[in-house]
Design brief:
The complex is a heterodimer. Chain A is built from 16 helices and 14 strands. In chain A, the strands form four sheets. Chain A has a six-stranded parallel β-sheet, with helices on both faces. A three-stranded antiparallel β-sheet of chain A has the order 9-10-11, covered by helices on one side. In chain A, strands 3-4 form a two-stranded antiparallel ribbon. In chain A, helix 7 packs across helix 8. The longest helix of chain A has 24 residues. Chain B is α/β, with parallel strands linked by helices. In chain B, about 40% of the residues lie in helices and about 15% in strands. Chain B has a six-stranded parallel β-sheet, with helices on both faces. Chain B has a three-stranded antiparallel β-sheet with strand order 9-10-11, with helices on one face. In chain B, strands 3-4 form a two-stranded antiparallel sheet. In chain B, helix 7 packs across helix 8. The model of chain B has no long low-confidence stretch (mean pLDDT about 90). The chains are: A alpha/beta, B alpha/beta. Chains A and B meet through helix 2, helix 6, helix 7, strand 8 and helix 8 of A and helix 2, helix 6, helix 7, strand 8 and helix 8 of B.
Amino acid sequence: MCDGASGLPLSGLRVLDFAQFLAGPVAAMRLSDLGAEVIKIERPQGGDLCRSMVVNDQVLEGDSLVFHTFNRGKKSVAADLKDLADLAAVKRLIKTADVLIHNFRPGVMERIGLGYQTVKELNPRLVYGGVSGYGTEGPWVKKPGQDLLVQSLSGIAWLNGDASDGPVPTGFAMLDVATAGNLVQGILACLLRRGTTGQGGLVEVDLMTTAVDLTFEQFTCFLNDQNRPPRRHDVGNANPYQPAPYGIYKTADGYMAFAMTPLTVVADLLNTPEIAQFGQDHAFSHLNEIKAIIAKVFVTEPTQHWLGILEPAGVWCAPVLNWVEFVESEGFKAANLVQTLKSESGAEALTTKCPIRIDGQAPSATAVAPTLGRDTQSVFAEVAPQQEA
Amino acid sequence: MTLPLEGVLVVDFSQFLAGPYASLRLQDLGARVIKVENPNQGDLCRRLYLSETMIDGDSTLFHAINRGKESIALDLKSQQGRAQAQQLASQAHVVIQNFRPGIIQRLGLGYDAVRALNPSVVYGSVSGYGHDGPWTDLPGQDLLAQARSGIMWLSGNQNAGPVPVGLPLADLLAGATLAQGVLAGLYKQATRKQGTLVETSLLECIVDAQFELLTTYLNNGNTMPEREAEGSAHAYLAAPYGLYQTSRGALALAMTPLDTLAEALPLPALAAFAVKPQSAFSQRAEIRDLISAHLMTQTAAHWEERLTARRIWCARVLAWPELLDSATFKALDMTSDIGASSESRRLLMKSPLRVDGQRAPAQAQGPALNADCAKITQEFLN
């Protein structure tokens, strides 16, 4: 981007972020990465709950480091939405905004007086994005929309791990991240439509629908296959629906990943003719037997030995790295995935970058997240009512 | 309902998952997607089977990702095929490709070539590992990107080996991320008549998915996260976060203050750990054992009801048949039946987002290879 931040696609747009925790704020951050101005609206007492959710003792400028990772570069306005003066100021601010994001449970924004129908009257061009746990209907609506709980309810915990394991959740907030992505898509699409119709729109996403969408390939198989539940592989499961050899294997000194490969090729390269005898048609139905044969072979030599045989043959395989090895790898360094945040007082923290490159460059952000209410005065001053003469 | 992207034309040269998932998302939002495939076999995904389920000769997987798109077969190695591809690209709002770095340029369809024909094009490109460094030529496949990214050490229990996410997470996030970038580019196209090159990769997206944990690691002196011995669900979060076995079924417990949980269960011994806030993390194994023994005395359904009534964040762990039976799943209205009759029930998934209160329907299965050749030729290639 030779023309600086103003060349970012969303420069000039204003986003009000009423959300806290993860999915909503992550969506707002992505819009900020793409050039929009993002103003967090927080309650005066403590603000976003995530400020005080300190993980692994990591703190930056008095707030949890995790908070900074997805609120970097935003502004913060502290407003008590139950206070009439504050609410009036927030409503004036809404008139100047292009996008509003919230993740209150269904009904809460309506009670505050900031439901979609009300806000649409204030600003017909506004794109209104709502994140919930389970949509707006059904018996789970009041359940907390939290990542682990939705992973548990959506069947995802039965896709990870091996056949003899209990349910194995994914060990990070995958649904929050993916839900944020869906919200961003809907908001951007409505901004585009606004260009032709002049009207804003309502975008709704939820963690449960996102969970189902993330499994859409497997779930579609399940739905069209007499609802037979997925069966995880006996060992090295990486996707219950993939045939042998797909999965993870132990080697003499570590682990490696082995992706889709025709059985004749596997048999040839590993010198195991018995695998070829199964025939490609049985790669799924006999996957555990085939994988057991491969496992016995891989464990006899170090990972590098097998990569030396498989990679030149064009077979899809990779060593399994941990973060120490990953961060030190040439591949990680070349991909340039990390940026440094700097606070006004000079404190620094490393964090990951926006995963989208625009015209060859990842938008970079060096600003930390705002302290609670840092921008209240300047933002509200901008929308203050004209004084009577 | 006017779908937001009505009138937007996407020409999609990509195959497998990440690229086609991006164009599926654009299509659900109203765009028209033309899939350009090689005449021999088309998208390799047509024959990539998950389990052994098939719809009309192509894998179920293919239909899940390519439902409702149009297909034209063009041989990009022939002069004529290339010229036609350029003709299509010159009329598109969006071009998507996922060839390995360098190949699309050799085919005369790289960003610079397309931009010369179509200056305001939004050009979306997804690769395995970006275009710099020693990994760029490696196969950009989901499991392999997961293997390299450290993500396999975040799920599962302490004594387990690496545990991959059991669905193609890197591919799906890369597709969704590409869709976001393309939409931002379309906004710039509409407001400033300028084109944009949007690029992402499986590696960037799988790192982005770990941002919360990885940022902690990068700033804590590179102390590796430790998975718990049992029920591990997040390596850096304090007790009681995780899964617990009960007398029937498993129960997930999310962030909960220990004193609240002690009272709700009730389990007075737990309150001792609530005195020092740090102990919820430093002594999480002991705390887990204590809770675990208590939860084993009743079923997951019992605990879910009891704890939910006391506003504690918990859920029973369900399998897909149970999810399907739930009233919530029915209310979400996530499936479309595209079968011709009740005997030929064909269920496909719908878009994960609702615009103006409505979820876009899944209108059709994936196209047969070259199904729309005549129509596309007449419309764009004369």
